[in-house]
C-alpha cells in the first residue's frame, strides 16, 4: 500500500509529515492512523485515542507492511476531553488530526483546550467535522438520533472560531467545505431550518508574541508530493519559486511552524499598499465561513451516506 497526503484527507494538503508525531482524536478502527504511519515514516510516530476499546488493534501492522524495525503506531483508550488522564503529555505532538468526532463530544471547549496543551509550539490541529449555521438549541441536542447522526451535537461554525481563539489558537484557516443534505424527511422535519456543512479547518498553536506582519513568501518546492504547487488552505495555494503576498496571520503561521524551512520570507517589496492589504485581510476573513465556501464551490454531501460510510469504516 502506498498513500500520499493528498489521497488521505481530501483535496488540500496536510503535507510535510515526515518525522512528525501525530495524534488522531477519536481514531475509531485506526484506519487513518495506519495511513499516517506511512506518511510520517519510521522516525515519526502516530497515536490513536478513542473511548471505545472494541477494536483489537494490531500495532505490528506497520512493521510487516512498511518494513519498519519497530511499530510507529500506538493506541490509547481514553477521552479526548481528558488527554492528560490518558497519559498524553504537554507539547508532545506536532500535528493532531480528527475526523467527524468533535461534534460527538459534550464538552468541545475541553477538547480544544487539551489539543492545544499537547501540541508543540508551531503545531496544528487539522480536523474535519460538521458545523451548523446557528447555535443548536438544547431540545435538539437532547435528541439521541440527531446527536448520533453527527447533526445536533455540532458547533455553530462561529462558535468554533471563537472557542479556538479563546483557547489560544490563531484564527482558524478553512481548508475545504461541503454543504450537507440531510436526506431523511423525518430528521429534516425535526431540524427545521438549521443548515449543516462538513468542513476542514487547520488551527495553529504559535509561540506567544509571534509577529503578525504581511510579507512576500516564496515556496521552495521541497515538500514531498507537492513539489509544483502547495495548497495551504482554501485561500492560499503557493506555486514553486513564485513570490506571493500573504497576510500577517499566514506569514506568522508559515514562519513559526514546520513550514518555516519550506519558504523564503521578505518584508521589502510588498506591492499592495497597507490600506489595500487590510482590505485583503478582510476578504480573507470571508474564507473562514464554511457555509459561504461550501456554497461557492457548490459541493454537497449527504449526512446519511456520510455517517453510513463512517459506520462501515468502524
Ligand atoms: C464517527 S466515528 C469516526 C472515527 C474515525 N475518526 C473515522 O474517521 O473513521 C467517531 C469516533 O469517535 C469516538 N469518540 C466519540 N466521542 C469521543 C470522546 N469523547 N472521546 C474519545 N473518543 C470519542 C467514537 O468512539 C468513535 O470511534
From TrEMBL:
Residues 20-168 form the Methyltransferase domain. Pfam families: Methyltransf_31. Its EC number is 2.1.1.137. GO terms for molecular function: arsenite methyltransferase activity. GO terms for cellular component: cytosol. It catalyses: arsenic triglutathione + [thioredoxin]-dithiol + S-adenosyl-L-methionine + 2 H2O = methylarsonous acid + [thioredoxin]-disulfide + 3 glutathione + S-adenosyl-L-homocysteine + H(+); arsenic triglutathione + 2 [thioredoxin]-dithiol + 2 S-adenosyl-L-methionine + H2O = dimethylarsinous acid + 2 [thioredoxin]-disulfide + 3 glutathione + 2 S-adenosyl-L-homocysteine + 2 H(+); arsenic triglutathione + 3 [thioredoxin]-dithiol + 3 S-adenosyl-L-methionine = trimethylarsine + 3 [thioredoxin]-disulfide + 3 glutathione + 3 S-adenosyl-L-homocysteine + 3 H(+). InterPro entries: Arsenite_MeTrfase-like, Methyltranfer_dom, SAM-dependent_MTases_sf. It is an enzyme of class 2 (transferase). One of its GO terms (biological process) is toxin metabolic process. Belongs to the methyltransferase superfamily. Arsenite methyltransferase family. This is Arsenite methyltransferase. It comes from Sinocyclocheilus grahami.
